[in-house]
Amino acid sequence: MNLREVEENLAEIDGEEGTEFLYALLRAYGLPKASISRLRSGTYDRADGADEHLWKGKVYFRTVAAEDDALYEMIEMARAEERIASESPRFLIIENGRRVLARDCEKDTTLDVGRSELVDHATFFLPWAGIEKTQIENVSMADVKAAEKMARLYDEVTRHNEIDTDEQRHELNVFFSRLLFCFFAEDTGVFLKGTFSNAVGSFTEESGADTAAFFDELFQVLDTAPGDRGGVSAYLVGFGYVNGKLFQRRAAAPAFTPRARSIVLECGSLDWSQINPDIFGSMMQAVVRPSHREGLGMHYTSVENILKAIRPLFLEGLEQQLASADTVRKLERLLDRLAEVRVFDPACGSGNFLVIAYKELRRIEHAALRRIAELEPHRAALFQFSRIDLENFYGIEIDDFAHEVAILSLWLAKHQMNREFHDLFGVEIPLIPLVEAGQVHCGNAARIDWGQVAPEGPVFLVGNPPYQGGTLQSEYQKQDLVLAFDDRTVNKYLDYVSIWVYKAAAFIAEREGSEAALVTTNSITQGNQVGLLWPRVFDLDIEISFAHTSFKWSNAARGNAGVTCVVLGLAREGQRRGKALYSTGSRMEASQINPYLVADGGAEIVIQAQAPISALPPMVFGSMPRDGGHLLLDPEEAASIVRSFPDAEKFIRRYGGASEVIRGTWRRCLWIPDHQADEAAAIPPIADRLAQVAAFRGRSKAESTRAFAASPHRFVQRAHRDTTAIVVPRVSSERRRYVPLGFVDGSTVVSDSACAIYDAQPWLFGLIHSRMHMAWLEAIGGRMKTDYRYSANLVYNTFPTPPLSEGVKAKLAEGAVRVLAVRESFPDRTLAELYDPDQMPEALSEAHSALDGLVDGLYRQAAFRGGEERLRVLFQMYTDAIREAS
Fold it and tell me: Per-residue pLDDT tens for 777-788?
């Protein structure tokens, strides 16, 4: 059962009272009706009172008539009671009809909400549905504030300096990276507190006239060892020696205005110790590229999304090893393992993934050292350094500035963790002079041999590669595809991110013990992309070891990007015993994950079919005019023509597709049979339009369009038949539980923005207007951004159905007619309104639920608990159908 279905169930139980509320709550999470009946009858109930239930391993529930404040005391009493603790309930729940107070005994977390607010906290009880909860860290807004001030400084500097060449831009970028280091250094103990900002404020003029000279001298001092600093201004002598090539290049600072100097001081007033090195490098990239800011941070991967990849890849295993290590020897083995971890990001940007991986490994190391100190206190004095070396972190980045910032970000992350080490063990590990650095290489990862960058042996490959759909790629990027796949026949519509998925698969296929986790656009797990990419991946004996289903791109910046992503874990076949499928706040165990990110759905890839694999009538693409708009009319134009020329009425039909069906705003079109072309052309306004169609087609660059210039009365593609038709919009909002289908008569011409099934019977309308068919669309169909994209060849023709008797068709027809009748009882409302989840009438919802029950019953007797179960059945039926056909 997925989270969306749980939320829908929770929205319907607010009216239940007393112990009935518990039964409804359990049903909402898909617990078997038979088990709930046994709880109700007392078979499973170990409780004493009439107002409580105690189900072993599941729940202790009590309904009370008490004030809200008293619930906390009652739940604490329940926690302490031996009879309850002996049954080990996962959840303790106390409710008073208004509020629900619950305790997750395993995660040690509490939920305190009003009854009506439960739907907003659906993840809390997900373990009942067999889905374990996960916890994700949040990103601080301090990073955004710092980036916004730096952006203001950047704009002020560029307004008053000539920054025209690539070299000038590079020098400015280097200056800003050094400035960032200095702000961070003075607030984190690398420099003395406030040293840098105070020096700027004290030793430069308010006019800004000498600020550039101050920075030039300071940056040279920071690159000079103390013994070589003869003649340096006295107020700069106290700055430490940085080394590490950060200040080695001699690049003149830009000229400063009074405002620019003032902004520097404003930046210095921030507490840079609160800045996350893991993301500020990426935000800095946005600062120095104003055209890419779009809210400062849109293009970097947030900490939350990085953890979705690296936690299941390697952190969870290390954390479990830490949790089970109850001896010093086991903890030392863990420390040895931590020292051997190698992380490689072949699209590292400014180092986000590498920084987060480094910090998380250091935190596990610190926890292990603390445990050793608890077991053998005398060992604490031996903790003098970290065994996790920056040299174990590898990357490839095509952008020169991002490559430099990635190295800087790793240094700052190391210092941040060194300070944590000092707080724990009292040992100072100085950051400067800089010695070790991450192994970050500048180059095009699509063309570089990754084996020449990454080390030998097991490697954890991570990253957030670039996304670019096939139609948006440059010629250079398309050549990248050819070179990466070493195949000139590679499909030109493959998403650019496919390069990294394929190369990651090839990389780990050759390295025993290596695994990968990539944040990618969800496009490669939907529609035609699956068939284009995944057979190549699976041919390398690689499988999906874990995945995170689609989630909206998000980070701490304003104006988040409109991208929907997934996380893909890749490993050699059989390398991982169990697989895990994550959704927002949840985890589900699986034996196999298919490329549509369905757990235990079979590995068969759904390929476009030219005809239905089931006994269904054909679906066709709607009629396409390709006319420059001259064969189409709005209702007023059509009425005006008919008023003046009544004979024109027989050539005018109602016309529309997706938008018209959903919004009810039908247009009109000229539909002229070949044998009546001369008659139609004798009507002046029609003749004028046909002349414009001919001219439009004659100017077309497409030969196929020009060929129709001689037949301006004809649609280029004519699918229309004078019969009833089911109209299926090719694009529909993801918010809708059902794609709104139309049912039209022969007087309506269906446009190419929809698909049509002609001479269709109501039973078919009922079959494909069901949750079963929607589950198939959601998994198999592509997306236009996040909206559903329906395809006849990919969705309809591949939809598996059981044999349908005439009796079954009659029942489906009854259900379909009921849905249509309810829709017609709301004549003033469009399908857009009727199928809006916030406005859907209860009667329509009930009619659809009844229809869903009929369709579900065709596939199995037991009720489905959600879309995942439907898909497992559908994928198995598809596999059987394809194998039988072959």
Answer: 988 987 776 788
**CA-CA distances (angstroms) from residue 436 to 224, 265, 429?**
18, 31, 13
CA distance 769 to 76: 49
Residues in contact with 660: Cβ distance below 8 Å, sequence separation at least 6, in sequence order: 666, 667, 751
What token pair was written down for 213?
């000279």
Give the whole-number percent of the chain exceeding pLDDT 70. Answer: 92
- Structure tokens given for 50: 């009439």
Residues 668-675: what's their mean pLDDT? 97
Q: Spell out the residues 6+ positions from residue 171 whose beta carbon is closer than 8 angstroms to its own.
A: 251, 252
User: 609 and 157 in contact (C-beta within 8 Å)?
Assistant: no
The letter for the amino acid at 619 is M
Strand partners, 260: none
Contact criterion met (CB below 8 Å) for 724 and 744: yes
Dist. CA 106–CA 83, nearest whole Å:
18
From residue 812, alpha-carbon distances to 744, 761, 804 in Å are 18, 10, 10
- Phi and psi (nearest 5°) for 782? -80, -175
From the list 337, 369, 364, 626, the residue with the least C-alpha distance to 460 is 337
Contacting residues for 751 by C-beta, under 8 A, at least 6 apart:
622, 623, 624, 625, 655, 656, 657, 660
Give the whole-angstrom CA distance, residue 276 versus residue 280: 6
Look at the chain and count its residues: 886
Residue type at position 560: N
In the chain, what is the greatest distance between 2 CA atoms, to the nearest angstrom?
105
Torsion of CA 547, 548, 554, 555, to 10 degrees: -60
Tell me the backbone φ, ψ of residue 705, rounded to 5 degrees.
Answer: -75, -40
pLDDT digits over 85-144, tens only?
999 999 999 999 888 999 999 877 888 888 888 887 888 898 887 776 654 444 455 666
The 10s digit of each residue's pLDDT in 173-214 is: 788 888 988 998 898 888 888 999 999 999 999 999 999 999
The sheet carrying 52-55 orders its strands as: 52-55, 59-63, 91-95, 99-104, 109-114
Residue 199 host element (H or E): helix 195-203
φ/ψ of residue 466, rounded to 5: -70, 145
772 in Cβ contact with 874 (< 8 Å): yes
Which residues lie below 8 Å from residue 340, measured CB to CB, with a gap of 6+? none
Q: Tokens representing 279?
A: 């993301």
- Cα gap 172→772, rounded to integer Å: 57
Which stretches does DSSP call E strand in 510-602? 515-521, 542-552, 564-572, 579-583, 586-590
pTM: 0.77
Best CA proximity match to 800, nearest among 769, 768, 778, 762:
768
Contact 387, 365 (CB under 8 A): yes
Helix (H, G, I), strand (E, B) or coil at 732: strand
Helix spans in 647-788 (H): 658-663, 677-681, 684-698, 703-706, 762-768, 771-780
Closest Cα partner for 263 from 199, 197, 190, 215?
Answer: 197
Cα angle 853, 856, 861 (rounded to 5 degrees) comes to 100
- Report pLDDT digits (tens) over 381-417: 778 889 999 999 999 998 877 787 788 788 888 888 9
DSSP state of 725: E
Q: Give the chain's end-to-end CA distance (angstroms, integer).
A: 33
Residue 262: how many CB atoms within 10 A of its CB? 16
| Helix or strand holding residue 654 (H, E) | strand 652-656
pLDDT tops 70 at residue 244: no
153 close to 378: Cβ distance less than 8 angstroms = no
Q: Which of 379, 359, 360 is nearest to 371 (CA)?
A: 379
